Amino acid sequence: MPDPLPRVLVVEDEPRLRDLLADVVPDMAAGFAVTVARTAEEAARILQVVSHDILILDLHLPGQSGMDFFETLRRTHPQAQVIIMTGFGDLAAARRAIRLDVVDFLGKPCRLAELEVALTRARQRLTHHTARPAPAETPAPANTTPPATLEDLERQQILAALDRNNGNRTLTATQLGISRRTLQYRLSQYAQQGHPID
User: Fold this and answer.
1) Which of helix, strand or coil describes residue 30?
2) pLDDT tens, residue by residue, 103-147
3) What is the architecture of the domain spanning 150-192?
4) Are 134 and 128 in contact (CB under 8 A)?
5) Which segments of 64-176 are extended strands (E)?
6) Most buried pick, 78, 123, 125, 130, via CB within 10 A?
7) Model's pTM, two decimal places?
8) Which CATH superfamily is domain 7-130 in?
């Protein structure tokens, strides 16, 4: 019987990024089973019921901070591998994370290739801890275009939803679970970056 897929818990309060990670992480490397949480407190409740092998953790969360949660996690789940993904990293946070044996410290937005490398490294550390042979690494296909970022994927989803709704921005914002103001802001960013909106 094959080994079960490693369980990844994504702890991220921003809904769009949380959903994007839930979509893309299961297909990365040799595959993962993904659960999501909006807060450190919700993540702690999930871990009481089902242990997870790897966490993708935002530092700036409502309620308990990601770093405080990481310190608690080290005591309660010492084998868990943690990848920090934050838009507000600083040197002090990075040093604290290193002391807690973080797998990687990624900025937002990060390239998908960077996240995949971090997940592969976390999986290898897991197999080392459990004395299972590490899975063979599949060489990445040659690609002349830069790897997609989570920001690119978000843009694609927003523009696809706008297209499905024939340009109706109110309906698009509702379907995406964001405010119309946030949608307007994103669309103005995309226009400045040279992406066609209509």
Assistant:
1) coil
2) 998 888 788 889 999 999 999 998 765 544 444 444 444 444 444
3) Orthogonal Bundle (1.10)
4) yes
5) 81-86, 104-107
6) 123
7) 0.67
8) Response regulator (3.40.50.2300)
